[in-house]
Fold this sequence. Notes:
Chain A has 326 residues and is α+β, with helices and mostly antiparallel strands. Helix content of chain A is 16%, strand content 20%. Chain B: Belongs to the complex I 51 kDa subunit family.
Amino acid sequence: MAKVTIDGIEIEVEDGTTILQAARQIGGSVVPPAMCYYGPLKGSGGKCRVCLVKVTQGSAKDTRPMPKLVASCITQVQDGMVVENTTNEEVLNARKGIVEMLLINHPLDCPVCDQAGECSLQDLSFEHGVSATRYEEERRTFNKVDLGPYIQLHMTRCILCYRCVYTADQITAKRVHGVLGRGDAAEIGTYIENVIDNDFSGNVIDVCPVGALTDKTWRFKNRVWFTKPMDAHRDCPTCSGKVTLWARGEEVLRVTARKDQYNEVEEFICNTCRFDKKEVTDWTIEGPRHIDRASVISANHYELPVVNVPIVPNLPKSTEKQLPQK
Amino acid sequence: MGLKILTEHINVPGIETLEVYRKHGGYKSVEKAIKTMTPDEVVEEVKTSGLRGRGGAGFPTGMKWSFLAKPEGVPRYLVCNADESEPGTFKDRWFMEKNPHALIEGMITSSFALGANTSYIYIRGELLFVLRILEKAIAEAYAAGLLGKNILGSGYDLDLHVAPGGGAYICGEETALLESLEGKRGNPRNKPPFPAVKGLFQCPTVVNNVETISAVPWIVNNGGAEYAKIGIGRSTGTKLISASGNINKPGVYEIELGVPVEEFIYSEEYCGGIWKGKQLKAVVPGGSSVPILPAELILKTAAGEPRLMSYESLSDGGFVSGSMLGSGAFIVFDEDQCIVRNTWNYARFYHHESCGQCSPCREGTGWMERVLHRIEYGHGHQQDIDLLVSVAKQIEGNTICPLGDAAAWPVAAAIRHFRHEFEWHINNPQEATAPGAVYRGQPAAVTA
């Protein structure tokens, strides 16, 4: 066990925990943002640099501060470590700088982007960014590419977090998906123009922190904040079948995996559940999904869970669920 | 004439063959190390010698070797970094081309010291002709029983392979090099774990520069204490310097560390003075990534002492009034060279070579290049100078690998020392964009 202090709050965590995970155990505003780190994916993290923190004391034994800011998602805690996140000016300035870097080649087309409302970059730039840009040059643009019948890649919006590459690598067989080119000309691609064709390919949409990978069965159907999220399940032979349905009225517009407050999926779901089962009758609805993210979604009526008020009439008694009272 | 360690026999005809190389005392260190010393004794000698990494960072080699984890039953590797691609650096290419056996001898002795049974030379992809020279030399060494099973009847086995890169600057960063050697995309790894614990194929690995490894045989033959006597202070031994730019005699020179910079530039033994007798304007003393220094700061430190060619003296004054020895690429600019154009050129290189993995470097290098391009071609604004300083600061120290720093330092230093020149470019776009136009005023004063 290691004792670590983050922004003045002390917590004891298992050895080998990263600073980010320790901060998440504390929760609230001390949690550094993360654009590339994704808990369920091995090897992710360290790339976007928005989670940089200052270690003012390395450990109880070696009390020297670390010379540079460190990426909290990949740095393991030591006993007696003291970390400063939101209390350190240097960290906040560096983070602001990195948000600016992430935005210089981003098209800022939020008004027509399907990710708007649940976009990590949107949240991050709202929190740390500046309202004006100092970048005058032409932005990098790409053509939209269809990766098979269900997924569209809009590389212009991509921030190269590599999450989809890890997902394709780790949960699907026959990976065709990777990064081509280097520097700011690097792009996600399926060498050469391959179709992503396997049962779990749709998960790359869920892990994407921005609107670079979008669900073609959902594109331009509606805005996220007009839809109502509901937990639902079905008896699926391929995956766990536990999903979140996003419905407007009785029409299911989108199916995604269940994500926690850090946008990390609880369980990956299969393409059949995600793309083909768009009827209410396909699903057993458990109740409203509490979206606990810093997102416009939590501004809707589902911010506080309402216990056992049936959304869809005439549900069997077995679907009733005890929700935690806030 | 200074003492020559690496280049003593380099001009002997036929030194690239095993026969001639052995005639001039080659492979003596292999015999001495394997037959009379234990691996730890060799490491101790290298530690005593004070030899420091010649690739750029200048980290003590003996200390790096002693950090190597030695778990039971796990192979260890020695990898030679011959991916020399920093603009201005050409010492390793020249050295390997001329005297391939010196590197191979160093590889055998060092591998023995580290207990590695398989070693690699990772060579820059563009140097295919050097790769062929090395492969020929390695074949000779195998035939002579200096490589392979049971070297010189001692029971020590070593296989040495040469692997070419694909031509990416980033693969000279040690963890990107290891990724590339494993056959993956050359992206630097997150550290920790460091290569000494988990390197090539997740096994403990030491990565050293060509010049570092080639210095080991002399240390083994003559003793570490003898090596430590050469040079000055903590900068022991000799160093190959790739001198280029506006000098009379560009080329690779072996110097004893501690030679005054003034002597290096102006003496007939080394660079032979500035080309056509012009005035010295600035020097980049250690390869394109280290800060540029104006003439008065390269010849004398801010305190007025003469500046020496050593790790300590060149970095005297920090980045405010100093620079770094780096990889020893000594680039000289005369009075007719435009600093803005040169800075843009460096920025273009780093933009092209950024791997694109982490955001500050991926986006920042391109941003700096575009702004510098604008200034150079007469479309700059006054606030662009501060913008460049601020972008460089946002990159520096916030990236996965040192490429971000390497891209930010030259831009920040050029503005620190030659701000007037940037301002002149912005204020006089017509004059500044005329062919061969150069600012002839005074450089900016040194400010803290």
